[in-house]
Design brief:
The protein is built from three helices and ten strands.
C-alpha cells in the first residue's frame, strides 16, 4: 500500500529528547546580599565530584555510539520509495550533561532526499526503558520512541498516524565489529507484516 506523506515519514525514520522549572524568591538588594554572605560563611564549598550525581548505569551501554561516523543508507523498492536508492551521511554522537543522555546529530544526502536531524537518547528510570526524542528538518515537533536491548541489539519502537494509516516503526541497531555498527529500520502499515525500509552501515572515524 502506498504510504501518504512519505517524505515526513522518511525524516522520522532516519533520525534514529525535561525541563525542570525553578522557583526563586527575591529579597531587597541589601537583604539578599547579607543572606549570601551569611550562607557562604556557614556553608562549606561542595566538592564538585561528590556533588554531581552519577549517570544511570544503563547509559554506559550506549557509549558505543560515541564519536563521528560515516554511514550509508540503502533503500529497497517500497511504497516509501518506489525506485530504491542510497544516501550517504555523517553522524556525530556525544554525551549530554552529566552523561545522562546522548546528543546525536546527523545529515545525509542522496537520491532519496536530504535529511538532517537531532536525536536525544536517555534512560527513563520510571519506565525502565530507553527513550529517544527525534527532531528533523522534514517534520514539525518531536517523535518519541521507547527502546530496550534485545540480546546485543538496541531496539526502539514507535508509531504515528497519517490520515487513516497507522505506521509502526521498529529500529534495531547492533555493534557488529570494532568501529562498525549496523542498523535496520522496519515499518508496518495498519497492522500488516512489517517490511525493511532502510539498512544502514556506519564506520566510526578513528583519531589520527
Amino acid at each position: 500500500m502506498p504510504i501518504k506523506n512519505s517524505k515526513a515519514v522518511f525524516g522520522i525514520t532516519l533520525i534514529l529528547a525535561m525541563c525542570i522549572p525553578l522557583q526563586a524568591s527575591f529579597q531587597e538588594k541589601a537583604n539578599s546580599s547579607a543572606i549570601l554572605v551569611e550562607a557562604k560563611r556557614i556553608s562549606p564549598e561542595p566538592d564538585s565530584a561528590a556533588a554531581a550525581k552519577p549517570a544511570a548505569p544503563e547509559m554506559e551501554r550506549l557509549k558505543f555510539y560515541l564519536g563521528t561516523w560515516d554511514y550509508t543508507e540503502t533503500y529497497g523498492k517500497s511504497g516509501f520509495y518506489p525506485d530504491g536508492g542510497k544516501n550517504t551521511g555523517v553522524y556525530t554522537s556525544k554525551l549530554g550533561p552529566g552523561g545522562n543522555s546522548l546528543e546525536n546529530t546527523f545529515h545525509s544526502q542522496g537520491p532519496v532526499g536530504d535529511f538532517e536531524g537531532l536525536l536525544i537518547m536517555t534512560w527513563d528510570a520510571k519506565e525502565k526503558s530507553y527513550k529517544s526524542y527525534t527532531f528533523g528538518n522534514d517534520f514539525p515537533g518531536c517523535f518519541v520512541q521507547t527502546g530496550s536491548f534485545e540480546g546485543n541489539a538496541l531496539v526502539y519502537r514507535g508509531d504515528l498516524s497519517m490520515g487513516d494509516q497507522r505506521i509502526a516503526l521498529r529500529n534495531s541497531t547492533r555493534f557488529i565489529a570494532p568501529n562498525r555498527i549496523s542498523s535496520d529500520e522496519f515499518s508496518a502499515v495498519n497492522g500488516q507484516l512489517e517490511k525493511l525500509l532502510v539498512h544502514i552501515e556506519a564506520v566510526r572515524r578513528t583519531e589520527k
